[in-house]
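Chapter summary example.
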Amino acid sequence: MLKLYGIIGLLLVIFSEINFFLKIEPFDKFYFPIIWFGYILFIDSLAYKTRGKSLINNALPKLIGMFIISAPFWKIFEFINIRGKNWYYIGTEFFGPYADLFAFIAFSTVVPAFFVTLSFFITDISIKNIIPKDKISKKVILFSIIIGLLSFIFLLLFPKYFFPFKWIFLFLILDPINYYNKRPSLFYAIKRREKIILSIVMVSLILGFLWEFWNFYASVKWLYTIPFVEFWYFFEMPLLGYLGYIPFGFTTFSFYYFIEFLFKRA
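The structure predicted for these 266 residues follows.
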């Protein structure tokens, strides 16, 4: 049986689903944090039931840290979007001067949702297997960081043509640094052909589907303007746009372990 908090989480998700059609206020406008906090509680409880361990039950400080860094993490992409304007929000005027506070609360769920979902598919040993046992060449680190920085610069200079790189440039900068510092690294996972890569791809697509599915019926939502791929829409997102969730998942993973390393050194 699910833990009580998991049942509460499931009820929050069900309520939000129903309220997409009932439009009961103010819950309708607050759907994003309600449904995603509910999702996190439910999936964590499900992970505990199936694996005997979960972030809430076994690593609560780690999960709290994920909530704290999540909104600042997403702000990086919002900053880049100032130039590219690939998405914009509607309905946020409801929150008036508290719109930024609402955004912080809403986007605090992004990183926790990713790792709670990942914990449902993988065990601790999967993470331990991608802690590098060797050193990465400094030339490889430098090359990857340079490519990441150039991607960022071209994103700002030519956003219409380089917009896909917004999801991968940070990964190219941070993951080789994680490798060098012997932190969980997807470069190392790719080198060792670890199955965690497939798990991250799957989790990224699952979350991408849920973000777009729940966004589609919402009154406070985002809409897209994506050059060259504005066809074959699946909810508000062009079908090809879902591919961006894969590098976003890689970036989320690398960003968290980079920040965790900084705090452990402090």
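To summarize the output: The chain is about 70% helix and 5% strand.
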